[in-house]
Amino acid sequence: xxxxxxxxxSMNAGKSTILLQADYNYRERxxxxxxxxxxxxxxxxxxxxxxxIGLAREADTFDADTDLATHxxxxxxxxxxxxxxxxxxxxxxxxxxxxxxxxxxxxDIPVMCYGLRTDxxxxxxxxxxxxxxxxxxxxEVKTICWCxxxxxxxxxxxxxxxxxxxxxxxxxxxxxxxxxxxRRHWTRRELGTRALAEAAE
Length: 201
Known about the structure:
Oligomer: single chain
CATH class of the largest domain: Alpha Beta
Number of helices: 6
Number of strands: 13
Structural class: alpha/beta
């Protein structure tokens, strides 16, 4: 029986690298995969997933209006799909997560989702909240704070590198805009800001 998987972490923990490696493993064995990524994230180019260590792959894109069940059904009419991979899964809507669950249940196709758990204000993304509720298997990818503790939170940086606390939930960016922190330094942002400034000196 296929499952719905959610692999989550804070920023820059290597989620895309893990996705690309798993996708490669399927294709190396002659299996066919369907890879999806959020249309809003064009840091590596539209419809492209890239890791910080140089791995990359073209992908289909989704936005809030994409019917993923219909998208997968259309692909199944043309060819078999042995696994569905979803990058930037935090940008899924709750209905889309239900669609992915039904793909696993009704078509017996594993669906592997990778994304952030929380935003820069410590709030769950809608897609992540739904995945935490519905996924059969949850896995955390660990990364570390500047202090060496496990980083579970994400802080947003302004142009000068200072931590900001207000703004839209979604602002696309990488290491230039976000830093992963442990809960202690995320809740004491002034300590986090000071440490970041000292590290840059």
